Amino acid sequence: MIKQAIIPLAGLGTRLLPLTSVIPKELLPINGKPGLEYILDECVNSGISEIIFIISKNKESIKKYFYNDKYYKNLIKKKGDERIKKEYKKIKKFKKMIKFVYQNSPRGTGDAVLRCQKLIKSNFFLMLMPDDLIIKNNCSKSMILLHKKYKSSIIASKKVSKNDVSRWGILNVKKINRKNFIINDVIEKPNKKEAPSRYAVIGRYILPKSIFPILRKQKPGKNGEIHITDSIKTLIMKKNKFIGHIFAGKYLDCGSMSGYINSGIKISKL
Ligand code: G1P
């Protein structure tokens, strides 16, 4: 069973400046709650019981958000407000599930994942990218069910337009049915000509523990970063099974300013 999830949270958030000069992008409110809480709700509702946050020294306020007990207790004592009590209860529930590891220099997603090696207990774990919100349908839950069936690694995917392929990891695929396919290869942010399809990697992955020794040796790729995509490619070449899952929910990109604004509007209309 998949019980552990990891969330890379050490990113700089430069695309959302000036908002992110003080507040981590994952704590920015989307329709009244931090974007990160949508991701945590997805985890909890898919049966995850332990969540590892990869943060940095500059993003300690994420830890503080969940470790502000004294503040809440004093406030509740003074005001006894039911709404505050309810919010505090929710935060306490999350706090119990979260562990923290640090990535103090932004060396890429692969490097972030490597920080979790010692904490991962079972053969597979879930990773969620906090910029990628998926609403209306729990993507992680569907992926965990798929993993149970095929005992393989799973990557969430969505067809993107040809002009956008260079923003994503792009999959080389062999279809098995309308929703799922076998992944034959993956290329990080290819140009239009290099792209083997229009199926993009969206930020939900079920990965095997065996990725850690590969990550340890992973050379920097595009833009000098250690990419998880490059280590996934190695695993695929070594005949590890990876299934692509075209998720049913609606995708919202919270990592750019226009996407962030749009997410709030879309969620408010639900
Ligand atoms: C990362 C991955 C990329 C994937 C994307 C999904 O890119 O490297 O393969 O398609 O997440 O959001 P980033 O968004 O960090 O540039």
- Spatial ordering of strands, largest sheet: 5-4-1-6-11-8-12-10-9
First CA to last CA: what distance?
A: 32 Å
Return Rg in Å: 19 Å
Order of helices and strands: EEEHEHHHEHEEHEEEEHHEEH
Largest sheet: 9 strands, mixed
Q: How would you classify the helix and strand content by structural class?
A: alpha/beta
DSSP strand tally? 13
Strand percent estimate: 25-35%
Continuous helix count: 9
Q: Into which percent range does the helicity of residues fall?
A: 25-40%
* Bound molecule kinds, no repeats: 1-O-phosphono-alpha-D-glucopyranose
Q: How does the overall form come out from the CA principal axes?
A: globular
Characterize the structure shown:
With 270 residues, the chain is an alpha/beta fold. It is globular. The strands form three sheets. A nine-stranded mixed β-sheet has the order 5-4-1-6-11-8-12-10-9. It contains nine helices and 13 strands. 38% of the residues are buried. The site of 1-O-phosphono-alpha-D-glucopyranose has 13 residues, from strand 11.
